[in-house]
């Protein structure tokens, strides 16, 4: 064999360099998780801090960036972080819920290695174990479009994040104890905006310029409404989808949801009130922040604070129906969002999911199709990988309500890769439900009052329904979605009302591919933590 020429070696080196440069960028973070004293409502509490911050650090990224976060758990309890709306393509190993990941033990660490594959938009992260979410530990995630991908609005002069949600004066351990004793959570004590109480935040703008606000409801029990004194909200994005640019005086943001809107500073140079208030509650809780014009000299606006909706269901339902997909705008790729004609694909399966409040063994529980979820002793994804028997049974979550008595079960719904499913969420209770599905975005094709029937499909929006990762179901109503099962893994389907989730209103969707190929799913991470019945096993050679 002839020795390679110098030209051949040069070409080989150039190809290696080109391949390295073609790889998507990496962003590295080191996070230290600790308890610390917080006073958001004027009462000393035990909060969860990340690098000493409450809320935690914001993640700023671009489509397809690789995000590497080494999380050190300095709490005296196991800990996990989950990434609301990040789809973890082919890698439910990084999802950060107990059904997929062994917890980070006290004093230990785990490195999340994620790619924000084919995603843009507004997201957040939060602690998923025990009742840690009630102690903070959350933060915002902004995923920007790649430079050459057109965005359907001019670059804003600034980009603000608002993490809003209800808050309790009781420590998270006390709230967990209330639930463990078989009782429901009390009414929240207040609302926070970016971890602060009344007028704790100020957003400075220049007169005449336009700004983007990303709002996420990071609370655990109530929907909220947001509005800005004297200013309109131009909705541009919902959970990774560009929307038709409708103007609103205020927006409802249900538990777990994220919206972004543009605000133009087109008013006289004064200070204007941003109001966040609870929806469908009595009493109504509220919190305020300040929209500060840089040339206002601190002069407050003479206008009255903007009133908001309170208990009106129809108002919220009509607003939700008005939010539509922008068919001509590019998403994370250059092709228009509407190039995928979701309404022309035949569904292969219908799932009907009915939530309920139940009593089991004398204690309060919540259920889906009469099944109240209980965690197994081993994460389901880990047990599935090692084929550990007796941890869960695929198909233990029924496709439709049974009407029978409620029972406890580690419920897993079996499904197949490339199925195209219709899921109908049915809510016979008098409480607005908010649902999230990990690993996926889906089209919200319909919602209405009353009982869903096959005839309800006649009113589905099969053209420009919004694609998103959460949905709300109004009292005595239903919401339907279409979802292509194109992401193999073990995915949490849960109530975003955290007390209901904790007491059983959740299950796991196992999306299975018989190919067992790395093309469909990444292998178990080399650094995966192992616990329960998987303790002592090996992942892969380092």
UniProtKB/TrEMBL annotation:
- The secretion signal range is 1-22
Entry coiled-coil feature ranges:
none
Keyword Plastid carried by entry: no
Output the SUPFAM superfamilies linked to this UniProt entry: Cupredoxins
InterPro entries membership: Cu-oxidase-like_N (IPR011707), Cu-oxidase_2nd (IPR001117), Cu-oxidase_C (IPR011706), Cu-oxidase_fam (IPR045087), Cupredoxin (IPR008972), CuRO_1_AAO-like (IPR034273)
Q: Does the keyword Signal apply?
A: yes
Entry similarity comment? Belongs to the multicopper oxidase family.
> Which named protein is this?
L-ascorbate oxidase
Organism in which the protein naturally occurs = Hordeum vulgare subsp. vulgare
Name the gene.
Answer: LOC123411294
């Amino acid at each position: 064999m002839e020795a390679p020429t110098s030209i051949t070696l040069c070409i080989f080196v150039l190809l290696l360099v080109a391949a390295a440069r073609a790889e998507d960028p990496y962003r590295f973070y080191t996070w230290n998780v600790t308890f610390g004293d917080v006073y958001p409502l004027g009462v000393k509490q035990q909060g969860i801090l990340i690098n000493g911050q409450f809320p935690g650090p914001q993640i700023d990224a671009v489509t397809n960036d690789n995000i590497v976060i080494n999380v050190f758990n300095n709490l005296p309890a196991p800990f996990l972080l989950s990434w609301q709306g990040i789809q973890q393509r082919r890698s439910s190993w990084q999802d950060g819920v107990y059904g997929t990941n062994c917890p980070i033990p006290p004093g230990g660490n785990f490195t999340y290695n994620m790619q924000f594959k084919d995603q843009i938009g507004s997201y957040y992260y939060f602690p998923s174990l025990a009742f840690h979410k009630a102690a903070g530990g959350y933060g915002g995630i902004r995923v920007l479009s790649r430079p050459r991908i057109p965005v359907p609005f001019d670059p804003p002069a600034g980009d603000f994040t608002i993490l809003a949600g209800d808050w309790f004066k009781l420590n998270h351990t006390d709230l967990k104890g209330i639930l463990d004793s078989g009782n429901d959570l009390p009414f929240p004590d207040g609302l926070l905006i970016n971890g602060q109480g009344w007028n704790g935040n100020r957003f400075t703008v220049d007169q005449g310029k336009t700004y983007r606000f990303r709002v996420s409801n990071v609370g655990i029990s109530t929907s909220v409404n947001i509005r800005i004194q004297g200013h309109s909200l131009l909705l541009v994005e919902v959970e990774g989808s560009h929307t038709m640019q409708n103007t609103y005086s205020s927006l409802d943001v249900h538990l777990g949801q994220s919206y972004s809107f543009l605000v133009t500073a087109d008013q006289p140079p004064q200070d204007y009130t941003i109001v966040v208030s609870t929806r469908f509650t009595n009493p109504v809780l509220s919190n305020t922040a300040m929209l500060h014009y840089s040339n206002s000299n601190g002069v407050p606006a003479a206008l009255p604070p903007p009133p908001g909706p309170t208990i009106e269901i129809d108002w919220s339902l009509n607003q939700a129906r008005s939010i539509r997909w922008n068919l001509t705008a590019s998403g994370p790729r250059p092709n228009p969002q509407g190039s995928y004609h979701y309404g022309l694909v035949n569904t292969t399966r219908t799932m009907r999911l009915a939530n309920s409040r139940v009593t089991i063994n004398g204690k309060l529980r919540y259920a889906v199709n009469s099944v109240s979820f209980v965690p197994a002793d081993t994460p389901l994804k880990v047990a599935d990988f090692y084929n550990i028997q007796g941890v869960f049974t695929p198909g233990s979550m029924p496709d439709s309500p049974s009407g029978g008595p409620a029972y406890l079960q580690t419920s897993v719904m079996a499904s197949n890769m490339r199925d195209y499913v219709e899921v109908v969420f049915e809510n016979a209770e008098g409480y607005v439900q908010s649902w999230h599905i990990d690993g996926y975005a889906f089209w919200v094709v319909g919602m209405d009052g009353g009982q869903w029937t096959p005839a309800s499909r006649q009113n589905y929006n099969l053209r420009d329904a919004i694609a998103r990762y959460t949905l709300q179901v109004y009292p005595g109503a239903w919401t339907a979605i279409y979802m292509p099962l194109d992401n193999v893994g073990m995915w949490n389907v849960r109530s975003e009302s955290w007390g209901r989730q904790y007491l059983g209103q959740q299950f796991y969707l196992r999306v299975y591919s018989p190919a067992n190929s790395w093309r469909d799913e990444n292998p178990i991470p080399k650094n995966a933590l192992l616990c329960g019945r998987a303790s002592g096993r090996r992942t892969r050679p380092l």
